[in-house]
Amino acid sequence: MSDFESLDLLPSIQKALRNKGYTTPTPIQAQSIPHLLEGKDLLGIAQTGTGKTAAFSLPIINHLAKNSVKVKSSHARVLILTPTRELASQIEENIRSYSRGLRVSTTVVFGGVGKSPQIKTMKQGVDILVATPGRLLDLMSEGYIKLGDIEIFVLDEADRMLDMGFFRDVKKVIAKLPKKKQTLLFSATMPDTISSLATSLLVNPKKVEITPQATTVEKIDQSINLVAKSNKPALLKSILAREEVKSVLIFTRTKHGANRVVTQLEKSSIQAAAIHGNKSQNAREKALGSFRSGKLKILVATDIAARGIDVPHVTHVINYELPNDPESYVHRIGRTARAGREGVAIGFCDPEELKFLKDIERFIKMKIPVDVNHEFHGVAGKPVPSRAPRPAGRNSRGKSPNKSNEPQSTTPEKKHSHKHFFRKKKKGLVK
Ligand code: AMP
After folding, report:
1. Which pLDDT score, from 0 to 100, does residue 314 have?
2. How far does the centroid of ligand 1 lie from the alpha carbon of residue 312, in Å?
3. Is residue 215 part of a domain?
4. Is 26 in the pocket of ligand 1 (CB under 6 A)?
5. In a domain, 388, yes or no
6. Which residues are paired to 153 by β-bridges?
7. Containing H/E element for 359?
């Protein structure tokens, strides 16, 4: 008997879970599902990777299947609002698999694709509508979607909505929802804006908090490679050539950076694709599809595009550029070690990124071991501005006197603290 059987879910749902190979509810599922089945509001502090999609989807499907009613044209009974197209598709896919065999209809609405099929489906009315804010408001203003019959509202990744500038849109959507409803709000972090929204939106909510540190960070084999910026491409290539590196997600801070990494790899005949906000929906889906199927080994992504990417077999996450926001680090490395698997996260840190590394370590409350065995450890490639200011023409390609790429450290241990790097940097031994 699986632990799921102790939850009061319909036999068809239990069967779907068994078919998916889920045996035990994840902590967020175990803590949320009983309250949600009772119709309570929920504040879930959790990121993707914790099993939160099933945590909210299963009780929703259960409720709809047990209380079947004919949905009016243009209406839906449940609205799940989520920031990205990828996340929306993924949620819809999950709901379809959990509700197999039940008379529960689901559809997804997002921008970047034609409206006609979405309008056609909405004409029938649908039980569960998964949507991104922009297209939803668009179709609402044209009268194709009406929110007056919503019984359950899920606001997913509220903090990311804020980051992506969707907050006003989210508020416009909320204003159109009926007063009486069950509301679920999920957010990985709780900035003040989100916590005031939660206060105004939720009625006596149950609060479930799943800290990313406990769920993912400790399971991941993390390391930092201290490397000069100019040596990052060569270091990346040498890591990608390692046998154990089978499926890799590479992160950059910017869209431009992601494109640059792909171009550099392609020059060395290494196939890779980038996903970010400037790519068309088709290009993103194609790249993600090939990556998911295993055809494409390397995917390069920015934080926003990668949020919610759920590819179970990612063996390595490489932070080609460290994020300036420590929470993004946790989200990024959480793309590996999905659903209980183990994973490896390698961060590249050039001297200018040491401040980001410090913030990350403070945030995750642990020191990330430094790998001193890679061939580009601490090798200078480019002068550090504080010691040798760049010429006025930005991005000088100035090479340092040390072009030999020889390791400068002779420290015997494989990994150690990066304190010595800070010290050496201060003394000017490492550039
Ligand atoms: P999510 O946080 O919803 O993105 O889920 C993360 C991953 O965990 C997805 O691949 C789910 O399919 C998987 N998952 C969710 N719940 C369970 C469970 N109880 N047992 C095993 N895998 C799960």
Report:
1. 86
2. 9
3. no
4. yes
5. no
6. 79, 183
7. helix 354-364
CATH of the domain at 336: 3.40.50.300
Enclosing domain of residue 358: 220-383+407-426
At 380 the pLDDT is 53
**Does 392 map to a domain?**
no
pLDDT-flagged residues of the chain (< 70): 1-2, 211-217, 307-310, 337-341, 379-431
In this prediction, residue 186 carries a pLDDT of 96
Q: What is the pLDDT of residue 339?
A: 54
Atom of ligand 1 minimally distant from the CA of 94: 12
Q: Are residues 16 and 134 in the same domain?
A: yes
* Domain boundary pick from 149, 178, 209: 209
What is the C-alpha to C-alpha distance for residues 310 and 58, in angstroms, rounded to an integer?
18
Is 339's C-beta closer than 6 angstroms to any atom of ligand 1?
yes
Reference 63, options 8, 126, 3, 124; nearest CA is 8
Specify the DSSP element, H or E, that contains 239.
helix 232-240
Query: Ligand 1 centre and the CA of 303: distance in Å?
Result: 20
Find the 153 Cα to ligand 1 centroid distance in Å: 21
Ligand 1 closest atom vs CA 22: 20
Cα 349 to averaged position of ligand 1 atoms, centre (Å):
31
State whether 142 and 85 are in the same domain.
Answer: yes
